[in-house]
Write a structure and sequence with these properties.
heterodimer, A: about 110 residues, mainly beta, seven-stranded mixed β-sheet, four-stranded antiparallel β-sheet, B: about 120 residues, 11 strands, about 0% helix, globular
């Protein structure tokens, strides 16, 4: 089973700052990684797939990068609505499809 | 645009079977483009994949849950269902149904239901 480790667990930033979130896999997963955003009380929303491709309707301030075992989600100039939890998910080797433990981006 | 909606009891007794149904609208469950799946989230914790089903009935399950999980599909009703047997308090979670695209965003969840909280308690 592929294990995804996200860091940090919590990221405290101010609106307008840049957020950098990390997801590390315990073995190479090529670029088969997605990022989801989840706001309290809501279902997750797909932001990025295949490491760097923005899903439909996702603003350009969200970008993904990485390959192999190390991946990054960058949110340029945080908007108030971006404060949420973020999860990565791999689909390189499944079942099972696996998620990371999540990073919460909170207002500083 | 697809819409998914979970339904089922919000309270299940320990050792009993949790049963949920997901109704799909805005598209056919038999389209072949999607797998249909379940993901759960214990209160305050992260996401856990439970399993997926194709409209043909092919299933894939989380290994740690495989002995207790059954996912089925009813194409005539445009629904798919989850059954989880012998539940314990550890199965208390928000359960989401979701579609796993196989074409544009390959094997990622692009549409989700709103989620339903299932509490296991006597």
């Amino acid at each position: 089973e592929i294990v995804l480790t996200q860091s940090p667990v919590t990221l405290s930033l101010s609106p307008g700052e840049r957020a950098t979130l990390s997801c590390r896999a315990n073995q190479s997963i090529s670029t088969y990684l997605a990022w989801y955003q989840q706001k309290p009380g809501q279902a997750p929303r797909l932001l990025i797939h295949d490491a760097s491709k923005r899903a439909t309707g996702i603003p350009a301030r969200f970008s993904g990068s990485g390959s192999g075992t190390d991946f990054t989600l960058t949110i340029n100039s945080l908007e108030p609505e971006d404060f949420a939890a973020y999860y990565c998910q791999q689909r390189y080797n499944w079942p099972p499809l696996t998620f990371g433990g999540g990073t919460k981006v909170e207002i500083k | 645009q697809l819409q998914l909606h979970e339904s089922g009891p919000g309270l299940v007794k320990p050792s009993e079977t949790l049963s949920l149904t997901c109704t799909v609208s805005g598209g056919s469950i038999s389209t072949g483009r999607y797998f249909w799946g379940w993901v759960r989230q214990p209160p305050g914790k992260g996401l856990e994949w439970i399993g997926i089903i194709y409209y043909t009935g092919n299933t894939y399950y989380m290994p740690s849950l495989k002995s207790r999980v059954t996912i089925s599909v009813d194409t005539s009703k445009n629904q798919f269902s989850l059954r989880l047997s012998s539940v314990t308090a550890a199965d208390t979670a928000v359960y989401y149904c979701a579609s796993l695209d196989t074409t544009v965003v390959e094997y990622y969840f692009d549409y989700w239901g709103q989620g339903t909280l299932v509490t296991v308690s006597s």
